[in-house]
């Protein structure tokens, strides 16, 4: 700093200017030198960004390309000129202490904000790392941890900014936060509850991005697209986006279809009602009814279909009789788990059951509307 001041003094002496104009000229030259140096250092940093990216592209690992991406480097470059200005302010405005104090505090606040922004961008880069499967609990933990870390960084930046404005020590302000802890707990209530609920969801392997979930008594019925500290974003099958809080999932109940998606078959459990009067013996010995033969041959039919997983349970059974007739339940698993294909193959099977029942002398019960 002293060398800069001496250089400016020498420049003024070379011009031959004397008298009251010297302080004004000295001040203007110092401002100009500060601006030039700040611009010069910023330009150098921006020139280094492509060089750093070239170096990271040559390495075998992938994490350096993600963590030191262009957004992080450019955001860091914006801090450098502010540091240069902050260092030169005591020299530039040594004759104007009030202006120096104000500009020093504003510059310090800018440095804090930009440093926090750089840290947040850097933390966000961790979510781009393909170190684990996007559905794994590790990735969910990482995302939750990054969210908490960003909140912590913003909170510290807020405290430091207030300390700069009040010209107080940040540690003194942090020590005094004990009296306002209740207020902070109230302000961050949803965030804290969301964090705890998110950790419970992931630690118990209850929910991941990509799962199909349904929530009773709500319109939630679709694929989880994003999980954060405060919301779970679900894209319904009608392409609408629904957000639900992690607390509501933990405190209530929801159905996760990932088990079905990963299993070798999707369950079918349908009941068809038959008229009591159509159930008859097939021979005079009264050893077999048409209902019994129908059930056994329907099981054989299901086991022989290519779209039915015969290695899982296939069962056609009678349930307890009702006023609507004899209920026969068809219980089996289709290999097609995708919704449209599942419904198409299920419809084919049920239509065959409806049409073949008459050949066994069975009548499907139906209630006619009153005239």
From TrEMBL:
Residues 190-257 form the Mechanosensitive ion channel MscS domain. Keywords: Membrane, Transmembrane, Transmembrane helix. Its main location: membrane. The chain crosses the membrane at residues 24-45, 66-89, 101-123, 144-165, 171-188. It holds the Pfam family MS_channel_2nd. InterPro entries: LSM_dom_sf (IPR010920), MscS_beta-dom_sf (IPR023408), MscS_channel_2nd (IPR006685), YbdG (IPR030192). It is found in: Membrane. Coiled coil: none annotated. This is Mechanosensitive ion channel family protein. It comes from Segatella cerevisiae.
